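Handout, section B. The chain below has 189 residues.
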Amino acid sequence: MSKGDRHGSLSVPLRLISDGQLAWSATVPASALLDPESRDVLRIADVEVPLDSDVDVAVALELIGGGLSVAGEVTAAWRGPCARCWLLLDGEVRTAVREVFTSEPREGEQYRLGPEYADLTPMVREAVLLELPIEAIRCPHPEPCPNLPAELAEASEEASEGGSAELADPRWEALEALEALRGRTDETS
């Protein structure tokens, strides 16, 4: 049996699970994933899920001894700044989920199963947050990026003209000076 909900909730009525299995899909606004107790935005560092975007959930639910097994896929959009030029970029996170719901869940290992519903919201929220990029995001612009600050753009041009093989970031100058001083100290020892 397959059921779904477009822009509905992620609370799945257990009465719909016939023969012990159910294929379920839903599309909900990202704002539906907010934790009602904290109302924190869906964000990791500078990357966030726009609250007006959709989150797609496609899972298979199966009754197991004393609980419910949920396995499938969650897809959500994200927005974050380029690590080079700070231009806002859009991307998509797609992650597999495989979780267990029980009436007496172990903290951090299982989710709460209600007597009549399985609320997939906490599972989906955590799956999305865990998959957001936390490392530097590079923009798709070719070198040199038109959005780079002037000092970085000049260094990039020099590198492309056969100068330095690496893009020199002026923020690292102090560290490079310390490294050079350390190298001279090691030579005199």
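Note. The first strand starts at residue 2 and ends at 6. Compare this with the example in section A.
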